[in-house]
Amino acid sequence: MQDLKQIDGFDISFHEKSKRIINIKIEDEIIERLIFPFKKFDITALEYKPFTRFTIAKSLDETTSHELGKLLNHILKNRNTGCFIIGPKNISSKIDQTFLIKLSTAITHLIGNPNHDSMAGKYYARFHVKHEDNSDSYLRKAYINMDLHTDGTYVKETTDWILMSKLEEENVDGGETALLHLDDWEHLSDLANDEVGKQDFIWGSPKSKNVGYKVEHPVFSKDQNGEATISYIDQFPEPKNMKQGLFLQKLSDSLEGSQNKIVTSLPVGSAIVANNYFWLHGRKPFKENKKLSRELLRIRGSFFNN
Length: 306
Description:
- By secondary structure, the chain is of the alpha+beta class.
- It has helices at about 30-40, 45-50, 50-60, 65-75, 95-110, 190, 240-255; strands at about 10-15, 20-25, 85-90, 110-115, 125-130, 145-150, 160-170, 175-180, 200-205, 215, 220, 230, 235-240, 260-265, 270-275, 280-285, 295-305.
- The protein has one domain (about 10-185, about 255-305): Clavaminate synthase-like (Double-stranded beta-helix, 4-Layer Sandwich).
- Helices cover about 25% and strands about 30% of the residues.
- Strands 1, 2, 3, 4, 5, 7, 15 and 17 form an 8-stranded mixed beta sheet that branches. It has a 4-stranded antiparallel beta sheet with strand order 6-16-8-14, with helices on one face.
């Protein structure tokens, strides 16, 4: 692994648990330079006028003479890395949830075009995890392990990457992020070469996702370099037969049993951005607390074609 390129105003280092993950901490001087251009547009403008999102992305990139966008794309498209954690080095009163939404928007618009998130009806989704929940998805179930998965399994849109940003957190114990790079998974060769995994599976979604169709695709495919890619989530496949059902059980057990999972805590204000083809993500259960509260922001989409 080569030494990391450094950019003025950013503290860039390897994650303490894996050199595949790059930590990018934004220094106070950069935050100060972003406050004025970020205030030009409110959240409604960003939602209704997509070109405004590129304007704040340009403001972010200009703080680094356009070096940041190049770095982020290099990390995400490089099979050896493919993941970074980015956020302010110091949280101050100037960094509220509105600022964090704009920062996440700017980061993603240096990478590509976000998908329309049908669950929220916007280019992003915000959701709370609390003590009590009546939803139909593991997404908000605080005390259940969210198994390793990729995003976009049940939609027609291309999902090259995903950003998950932590906007707020109170009274939380547990709930750490779990990550696994496909090439670190002990059973990759066995499962990716299984003919069942190359078959088309039916993928649906619960009502809360607001997606009124189903799609078909295999669990495992190959990229342009012949490397294995995965599109999988445990809750949404609809096995057509016994072979598919047992394959999915074997897959689920071997992913969750991997000794190479990375379990890490994400600071408030930080975002994980990962390549959705060879990184899986999940969440450990929280410890029960009636006052538990966490709010997350999600943006997912495709890389720019040019």
